[in-house]
Amino acid sequence: MAKPVVEKKYSFLDSIYLFEILKGMVLTMRHFMFNFFASFRPGPHTIPTTWQYPEDRREISPIFRGEHMLMLDEQGRELCVGCGMCAKICPAKCITVEMAKVKEGEESKYAGKTHCKNFNIDLLRCIFCGFCEETCPKSAIELGQGYELSRFTKEECQLGKERLLKNYHWAKKNNKLKPKKVEAEQPKDKKE
Amino acid sequence: MIDLIIALIKVVGIWSFTLGVAAVMTWVERRGAALIQDRPGPNRAGLFGILQPVCDGIKLFTKENIVPEKADKVLFNLGPIMFAIPAFSAFAVIPFGDRIIIGGKEILLQISNIDIGFLYIVALGSLAVYGVIIGGWGSNNKYSILGGLRSTAQLISYEVPWGLALLGVVLVYGTFNLREIALAQQGTFLGILPNWGVFHQPLGFILFMVAAYAEANRVPFDLPEAESEIVSGYHTEYGSMKLGVYLFGEYVNITTLSALTVTFYFGSWHLPYINMASFLGDGTIIYGIASFLIFCLKVSFFLWLFVWVRWTVPRFRYDQVMKLGWKSLIPLALFNLFITTLFIQIKYYIGG
User: Fold this and answer.
1) For residues B21 and B96, what is the distance between their CA atoms, to the nearest angstrom?
2) Which residue of A has its CA nearest to B40?
3) What is the set of domains in chain A, with CATH numbers?
């Protein structure tokens, strides 16, 4: 049922506008003064609702799904074994993995017996669903915190292995790795 | 010859002054709006974004000059000019300071001290509507012509209370000469108040301000360009510097109206309670500069008031604008005129 229209009764003061306008002007002036002095304060992000982007970045949730990275373990060995599970589950089919056996003498570089010779992610196709991360048996691929994904050419949107490892090193250096999933596994141990 | 040079300096000076103020106002408008709405606004170009008008100017100048195919070419090009000329030329009779005497030669800080300055201002105010209606008609666009028509109706309606409110001031000071009106506002009124027009004509001042906002096509009376209703009104089809002239003309209009408000109602270059002429010496250069600066200070307050009101008050509906103009402002303006004449007559019979 439609709401009945109620004619609003205006008092004399309302109907001459001026006092209402003055009240509104006091309100806008309060906002102006607050922000005016806030804009002089040193440091970024002084006006609370606006982030001045390049200098002043938003805090990103630790479980944010951004630019991908290939993980290394504590000894600096590649975790990926090149099984191709990520490529299989990927709904956008943006991952291509090429498996290869670890050559003799290179065991210190790779954690498993096999490794990925090539690992390519097509950023133009990726939908950042995080299935690859979820399905990976070795937790070797993760979606990191990087969100500045615009590139000048199509070729730059193909993330090769080098770039993915670079992302990992950047995240490690800036302390932006995801917290390890130890806490999530603890309840399982208790049950056992 | 020397008179001609002095006049030329004054013309160029005041012309570049109004242009500069208009440029800075575009920045103040955007920055003020942003701060009122809790955002920073343009703050990248130069210190606090003060160079933003320069960037805007470069952008507008370098853009392609597009004339719509079906537009009336002559009127389309004439529109911005017709809009800008009255806006600039109205400043010619406004005194922006007292006077400077150099070597026994009196230089008035006013481009031309004509006796019918008031009539000149009112005439140019009515002329401003041509720029809007010609631009709207020449564009050959439904929204443009709607904007132009709205502007015509609005400006004609508000011209009347505007002029009537100003007539009250003319009655109080008994002259059409703007410099004499400014000079008469020296001293105190009723012993305690500064002898400013606003204390002689409080109702007239309110009527004048309301009508001035409508004259300048500013919110809450920005019906000619109402973005949410008719795209951009009369300048929908305009681009590049032609649009720039329209936007600049609007700010020049605002500057002129603020200067008029100060001249008629806020004592022009006079400080309250202090007689600067006796303090700094009448006609000295310091006095001239000081009077100009005081005038600028007062004008800048009213310029800010235009921005402040714009971002406080929503737009009126068209019928509300007409109702306010014809049913409230004009009767009140006539009433104000009646009361003023009555008081003047009483004073005449008592004081002799």
Assistant:
1) 14
2) A47
3) 14-56 (no CATH), 68-178 (3.30.70.3270)
